[in-house]
Amino acid sequence: MQAPSLTAQMAEFRAPPGTHDVLPPQSARWERLVALFARRAGRAGYQLVVTPVFEELAVFSRVGVETDVVRKEMYDFLDKGGRRLALRPEGTAPVVRAFVQHRPLTPFKAWYAAPSFRYERPQAGRYRQHHQLGVEALGTEDPELDVEVVTLAYEVCREVGLAGVTLLLNSLGDDACRPPYLGALAAYLAERAGQLCDEHRERAAANPLRVLDCKREACATATADAPRLLDNLCDACRQHFEQVTAGLSALGVPFTLAPRLVRGLDYYTRTTFELQSPALDAAQNALGGGGRYGRLAESLGGPPTPGIGFGVGVERILLAADHEGVFPPPASAVDVWVVDTTGGREATRLAHRLRTAGVACDRSFDGRSMKAQLKSADRAGARLAAIVGAHEAAAGTVTLKDLATGEQEEVPREDVAKLVEERLR
Ligand SMILES: [Zn+2]
Ligand SMILES: [Zn+2]
To answer: pTM of the prediction?
Structure first.
């Protein structure tokens, strides 16, 4: 039997299960989305923070041992030095770890764009590597900060053009009011354990809040009349929540109270929110979400520092945008195509001149024919062709051709950048 040739083997390679490549023109939407997010966050005083893609496993496992993410989805591994590391499953813990390590002045307002990893069964819309945009703000419990953060998340979705976004809002209370509430909820669930779904029959006591968030009908029915945390907040938490809702109303940010909303990680306190899109199916309709966290900095070895943040999924937002028919990829990669029938050096010079002047332009290679070069110009969606043939090369001119109308004009080479800009305006 013959060994498979190297090229045959190469052809077998695929992106690993649960991952995906992002190529043009889709990648242009990513670029625009990240830029939009950076602009919005920057305008509100958030600055870029970049943390490693992997951290010590404990950075994530400390944030809650009973969460699904930690229990079964962490993408963890031993490195060659025997360190137990994990690819970041979410964006908050790494930023808080960096905050604790570097102790910047507060309030500390950070934004990030980073991949997140979860080792789960690959299925439609669920990735082992997905991409998140998010912010974290540390150093104050002021409810006006909650308003700022929630509004930012909402406005990003709106600027993308997502008209169908729903903002769900809840308070998870704090150390004063949550424990007694959890006791009451656990007792309620214990009486109905037999009616809960398979997953929660055993685990209801360990994390009763998750049962409220369970999408299965058994749990939904059994908990229809369960006590609600929103009705059992202490005075401080109630006041805080009222200021958040009043602040959002003052800005005209519409929200829906969602007493069952629980985020996947245990460290959240008080304000918790989620952005949903009807364009995504029920199991994964969250574009993202976030909330306030009280003890995270402390649990990572820092001084007690309250914080709040959110993350939204790039893939989810673009999927929702597709469903709503908004945020399309740009029609063209470049504005101008430089056509050179004299061998290619003229195109090199002219493209350089245009690019230096700030014009997005491209050119063909390999001495293709005029027809082939104009075809490439069409394919790129260019509006103008800047043509140099033997005549133009000798005369020191360029022929500008409007690719929509076919109209053309020969212009002096010195003026070409200025004239191109005028035509593109
Ligand atoms: Zn359940
Ligand atoms: Zn409270």
So the answer is: 0.91
Residue 199: other Cβ atoms inside 10 A: 15
Q: Pick from 406, 400, 327, 351: which is nearest to 36 by CA?
A: 327
First to last CA, the chain: 64
Name the residue type at position 218: A
Helix ranges (H only) for 44-169 are 57-61, 68, 92-102, 143-160
Nearest to 270 by CA among 300, 295, 298, 301: 295
Sign of CA dihedral 294, 300, 302, 303: positive
For 157, counting Cβ atoms within 10 Å of its Cβ (0-12 exposed, 13-18 middle, 19+ buried), the class is buried
Closest CA to 320 of 276, 280, 274, 275: 280
Ligand 1 centroid, distance to 210 Cα (angstroms): 8
What is the band of 47 on the pLDDT scale with cuts at 50, 70, 90?
Answer: very high
Question: Among all chains, which residue has been given the structure tokens 């918790």?
Answer: 272
User: How far, in Å, from the CA of 241 to the mean position of ligand 2?
Assistant: 10
Residue 65: per-residue pLDDT: 46
Q: How far apart are CA 157 and CA 150, in angstroms?
A: 11
Nearest bound ligand to the CA of residue 292: 2
Res 70: pLDDT:
57
Report CA(68)–ligand 2 centroid distance (Å).
25
pLDDT, position 126: 74
